[in-house]
Design goal:
By secondary structure, this protein is α/β, with parallel strands linked by helices. Among the domains are: 44 residues; 170 residues, Periplasmic binding protein-like II (D-Maltodextrin-Binding Protein, domain 2). It is 46% helix and 16% strand. The protein has 17 helices and ten strands. Strands 1, 2, 3, 4, 5, 6, 7, 8, 9 and 10 form a ten-stranded mixed sheet that branches. Helix 15 packs across helix 16. The longest helix has 21 residues. The chain starts with a helix and ends with a helix.
Length: 397
């Protein structure tokens, strides 16, 4: 924990105690303590931009790929701190008058809610972010539109599937239909424990046309009987004597299950599969057909301790060259289309100096012939109801 945040926590505890006491002196003291907390936070952060992200290999890729280069170019320190997601922590900082974060790596709906509540700064994308090297405005260089005015795209990652290369005597599954084809490719499958992305791939495997970015899949799910159709497809797979399902919850599990021979195919996150295949030499191979693309965004905290420098840093970290830099350290696709050109022109791009990264990019043209963009609005509106039906279906397997 940083000095700023440690001091802020102490102040909050003291403030909670003080508020329980009566009298004008205590109320004045509480205000003074809160003000002091804010002053210390701001003064000790005046020469550093603080970014809250998810930790581990992901934050390492951000720090090395574009955080450190941006810091060097601007002459501003950029500090990275881990958090567990959501808006509760930044709300607490704001309510205490002791904001210690400048930039936060967030999910789509957090950017929407944070924007509505005035927590984040609204952007004019083509003014606040540089154009691509060929002059394409930033707003036209993003792979997909932003979910709110307070979001700028960082990376895209894939919900795809991989298979055990030892399992099928040289035969290779190549489509999302093959994931469900237990006659040609017998064996258990590992799938995510919740309905998210399982319904989409089930409909695609059942013959529903995806449409551009999966829009027709979601239209079908909105129709009467669409969710039941998808769940029946999953149920059929899980109860098939030639198939069967193992449900995973942690990202490390799918490659582990494949390597252990407990399943022959597994859905999962492409970054985890990449680490197992390239980093550890695991006998697995990814299939991109029918993948679901998911996203991460940056948001700029309104009234953060170093908002001016943070805005400059954010603009640089999300430019074409910097976003491409993150792909040297992790197999997630930069949100900028032009970043792919940097990678392609400088292969092998991975940090080991020998691995080609374009085939590993979820947004590469070869990998986006059939894909869907995970729709956060659909799942926000329907997730609870679908979740109940999903759990009932699983209980009956």
């Amino acid at each position: 924990m940083t000095l700023n945040s440690h001091f802020g926590v102490i102040c909050l505890y003291k403030l909670t105690y003080i508020k329980r006491l009566n009298g004008g002196i205590m109320r004045k003291l509480s205000k003074l303590l809160l003000a002091l907390s804010f002053v210390v936070s701001v003064s000790s952060s005046a020469f550093a931009v603080t970014v809250a992200s998810w930790g581990g290999a992901y934050t390492d890729s951000q720090k090395q790929g574009y955080g450190d280069p941006t810091a060097a170019a601007l002459g501003v320190d950029i500090n990275w701190v881990d958090y567990s997601g959501g808006l509760s922590e930044i709300k607490a900082q704001k309510e205490a008058g002791a904001i210690t974060w400048d930039i936060i790596d967030v999910f789509a709906f957090d950017t929407i809610n944070g924007c509505d509540e005035g927590i984040f700064v609204k952007f004019d994308f083509d003014k606040d972010f540089p154009a691509a090297p060929d002059g394409t405005p930033a707003s036209e260089d993003f792979f997909a539109p932003m979910p709110s005015e307070c979001a700028v795209g960082n990376i895209l990652y894939s919900w795809n599937y991989a298979f055990d290369t030892r399992a099928f005597d040289g035969k290779e599954p190549k489509t999302i239909k093959d994931f469900f084809n237990t006659k040609k490719f017998p064996g258990k499958r590992a799938i995510y424990k919740s309905a998210l992305t399982n319904l989409e791939i089930a409909l695609a495997a059942d013959g529903v046309n995806m449409g551009k970015g999966g829009e027709l899949l979601y239209r079908k799910l909105e129709e009467e009987g669409g969710v039941d159709r998808a769940m029946n497809k999953i149920k059929e797979l899980c109860t098939d004597p030639n198939g069967g399902c193992v449900f995973w919850s942690a990202g490390a599990q799918p490659p582990e299950l494949l390597v252990a021979g407990e399943v022959v195919m597994a859905t999962g996150w492409n970054g985890r599969f990449f680490n197992a295949e390239v980093g550890e030499g695991a006998p697995i191979k990814q299939v991109w057909h029918g993948q679901g693309l998911d996203y991460e965004y940056f948001a700029l905290v309104k009234g953060g301790p170093d908002e001016a420098n943070a805005k400059k840093a954010l603009a640089m970290m999300t430019n074409t060259e910097m976003l491409a830099g993150s792909a040297k350290y992790i197999a997630y696709a930069p949100y900028r289309l032009s970043s792919l050109e940097i990678i392609k022109a400088n292969e092998p791009w991975y940090k080991d100096g020998k691995t080609q990264m374009m085939p590993q990019m979820p947004t590469a043209p070869a990998n986006t012939k059939k894909y869907f963009l995970v729709d956060p609005f659909y799942w926000a509106d329907n997730g609870t109801e679908i979740g109940e039906k999903w759990e009932a279906m699983k209980a009956g397997l």
